[in-house]
Write a structure and sequence with these properties.
Helices cover about 40% and strands about 15% of the residues. The protein has ten helices and eleven strands. The strands form three sheets. The protein has a six-stranded parallel β-sheet. A three-stranded parallel β-sheet has the order 3-2-4, sandwiched between helices. The protein binds NADP nicotinamide-adenine-dinucleotide phosphate (NAP).
């Protein structure tokens, strides 16, 4: 391995520590801690793990947590009512509804019901539109975390060729918007892209957000490129427990890239750190304060 291994875990921890300091200052100034409400519907094991981590991080940051764990059978009307109540709750600065929701609930309708100023996932069309048009917004946590790692690693991104593989509303599209705002030259690739290996070979920055285990091979990577692997895929192992891998064949790519994120321990921890940051920012804006600096 010649590439630098980007330690997302350590970088995320340092962001969370700074958020905790700023949250304390907020509490002293405003008289209450920033608050995050999480909503989990059903018992999907991966979602339950993610929400538990988010609740734990909220407590560790000294913020107020409001955890709502609802049964799988919850109706869409009841969920919309809960979101409406959280919109009106002054103690709540951020609302996170864990996706995916059970099939009988329309997630678009739920996302559109969240008050945009409390939309700490950044999925509401108002926040997506504001990001796309360069206005202040709440930015989706995963791509925001990827951008943070890229800027730490590369400094300015202006003029660099970036390829984002994946065009979801959660990762790919906001990632492309963020990179465009940083003046990178951005290509968005997806399942219909022709000649993907050659497209990726042009890139100084590769962000892989596909959901296909180790799809991006070492010989797709331009020597010295910075590779951010968003994918989380469980592959079978002999002991039956399975193992997590990214969308990039790590060992191969690490022999060519300049820097690369591991899976786990790369982008995943950054997602939670950015959720804490977004909650802090939402609290400041709702209290009429300037955004906290140095985060
Ligand atoms: P998604 O909504 O399923 O989107 C996947 C994207 O990959 C789509 O745009 C799809 O193209 C594209 N794609 C599929 N097969 C492809 C192929 N063979 N070649 C090129 N592109 C292809 O997934 P997502 O929500 O963006 O998540 C992507 C991955 O990131 C998943 O592994 C997910 O678990 C992980 N993730 C991690 C975090 C984290 O915190 N680390 C957060 C969110 C997601 P089409 O649009 O043409 O179908």
């Amino acid at each position: 391995m010649t590439a630098k291994r980007i330690d997302g875990k350590a970088i995320a921890q340092s962001i969370r520590e700074r958020v905790a300091v700023a949250a304390q200052a907020f509490e002293q100034r405003v008289g209450r801690a920033p608050g995050l409400a999480t909503v989990l519907v059903g018992e999907d094991p991966a979602s339950a793990v993610y929400v538990r981590s988010k609740n734990r991080a909220t407590a560790e940051a000294g913020m107020a947590g409001f955890a709502h764990n609802l049964p799988e059978t919850t109706s869409e009307a009841d969920l919309l009512q809960l979101v409406t109540d959280l919109n009106a709750d002054e103690r709540v600065d951020g609302i996170l509804v864990q996706l995916p929701l059970p099939g009988h609930i329309d997630s678009t309708r739920v996302i559109e019901t969240i008050e945009p100023s409390k939309d700490v996932d950044g999925f509401h069309p108002t926040n997506a539109g504001r990001l796309a048009t360069g206005l202040p917004s709440l930015v989706p946590c995963t791509p925001f975390g990827c951008l943070y790692l890229l800027k730490q690693e590369l400094g300015t991104l202006a003029g660099l060729d970036a390829v984002v593989i994946g065009r979801s509303n959660i990762v790919g599209k906001p990632m492309a918007a963020l990179l465009t705002a940083e003046s990178a030259t951005v290509t968005i690739a997806h399942s219909r892209t022709r000649g993907l290996p050659d497209v990726v070979r042009r890139a100084d920055i590769v962000v892989a957000a596909v959901g296909r285990a180790e799809m991006v091979r070492g010989d797709w990577i331009k020597p010295g490129a910075c590779v951010i692997d968003v994918g989380i895929n469980r592959v079978p192992t002999d002991d039956g427990k399975g193992r997590l891998v990214g969308d990039v064949a790590f060992a191969e790519a690490a022999d060519v890239a300049g820097a690369i994120t591991p899976v786990p321990g790369g982008v995943g921890p950054m997602t939670i750190a950015m959720l804490m940051r977004n909650t802090l920012v939402a609290a400041h804006r709702r209290a009429g304060l300037a955004d906290p600096e140095d985060l």
